[in-house]
Amino acid sequence: MTRVHDMGGRFGDGSVIPEAEDAPVFPQEWHGRALAVTLAAGFLGQWNIDISRHARERLSPKDYTRFSYYEKWISGLADLLIERGVLTLEDLKGGNGDTPHPLASRALKAENVSAALAKGGPADRPSKVAMRFQPGQAVRTAHPSANRLIDGGHTRLPIYAAGAQGRILRLHGTHVLPDSNAHGLGEAPEPLYAVAFAASELWANPENPKDEVVLDLWQSYLEPA
Amino acid sequence: MTQPAAMPHDDHDHPHALLPPEPALRVKALETILTRKGLIDPAALDEIIDTYQNKIGPQNGARVVAKAWADPEFKRALLEDATPVVADLGFYGRQGEHIVVVENTPELHNMVVCTLCSCYPWPLLGIPPGWYKSDAYRARAVREPRKVLADFGVSLPKDTAIRVWDSTAEIRYLVLPMRPEGTESLPEDELTALVTRDSMIGTGLPKVPS
């Protein structure tokens, strides 16, 4: 049911260490390379953002915990390249050097980088799913938090907010459903809402009764309360 | 291309273990393999790094905030539907396709986190700082935001409510901090210099003019 990436509310992680505003964007040179290789490989068009997030989440708990941020990226990417059939295990071992690849024509060229990054990839789509909730309405999230299409699959309802009552703050329109899109089951767009939860609904000892947490949640995660 | 492998939701072997374990070497190995097959272009990688190291960063968000402080009509439009408004300033693109701006007031302080990964408004703030991606921030910001703020040296009045936005979808949040007192006569470009990255995430406050 759970994966280690879903850490909201967890105890024991210690202090947050702030950084200077002008600290380097990439403290190590390989951080920038890891980010760039990952983005460039994404432009080959063999997966979507939900699949790539899920690839990182599926690192073993041991790896997820011990890897630094960009180690997760590069390791998730390697796994994805194999899983999607872009590379073979032999390739990863460095065995098949310069064999031309059928996808090479899709490789992102330097002169197209700026336009490709500026274009983005919006997640809103037209949807036939009727909107069930209005701002102000009380709702309850699904319990347990889980992908209802694929056991152990990707979902964006964190465990800490499962089975909790909140209220609709705003509608964001209709967006691609990650639970479906991460598994090649289609984009399945549906209404997406910002839902506010009182801290006392989520935590045994909230810091302040006035505080709230807001999550963006898809309609299928919600029931009327 | 070859037939994609089935899309298992779980797996029992992890191909990444075939790459060298040391992170810098692991990245280099994968870059080399992909480059030799013509799947990535090292010059494109340089361009991506240059973009996020030198061109796109919190200076973009600071312009938006200063403009909102200086121009009530801009601020109204920004809070109503930020995406087209910031796109007009040239700020749109990857990880910034759906922007929502949330306003701090004496009654309400906003703070942004992504507990599940590291979602962040790239076109406005660039690549997130290390602490934003850390387990400690992801785990604690939702449960004890006031203690997290204390780690940043920020203390809020008890009667100011905190609203923590957990970025669980493709909506990217930017905090509009309160305009510091004593800045009424400052022009927009001087206001821009007061806007810190952390103040737009909600873990800091703007600088006060000296």
List descriptors.
heterodimer; A: 225 residues; alpha+beta; Cyclin A, domain 1; SH3 type barrels; 2 domains; five-stranded antiparallel sheet; 5 strands; B: 210 residues; alpha/beta; Nitrile Hydratase, Chain A; two-stranded parallel ribbon; 10 helices; 4 strands; 40% helix
The largest sheet of chain A has its strands arranged as: 4-3-2-1-5
The radius of gyration computed from the alpha-carbon positions of chain A, rounded to a whole number of angstroms, is: 20 Å
Give unreliable regions of chain B as ranges.
Answer: 1-9
Low-confidence stretches of chain A: none
Calculate Rg of chain B over CA atoms.
Answer: 20 Å
- CATH superfamily of the largest domain in chain B, called what? Nitrile hydratase alpha /Thiocyanate hydrolase gamma
Arithmetic mean of pLDDT of chain A: 96
* Helix and strand composition category of chain B: alpha/beta
Largest interface, C-beta closer than 8 angstroms, per-chain residues: A-B, 121 and 98 residues
Using the coordinates shown, work out and report the CATH topology of the largest domain in chain A. Cyclin A, domain 1
Please, how many domains of chain A?
2
Instruction: State the end-to-end distance of chain B.
Output: 61 Å
CATH class of the largest domain in chain B: Alpha Beta
Largest sheet of chain A, described in full? Answer: 5 strands, antiparallel
CATH class of the largest domain in chain A: Mainly Alpha
- Count, helices of chain B: 10
Strand content of chain A is 15-25%
CATH superfamily of the largest domain in chain A: Nitrile hydratase, beta subunit
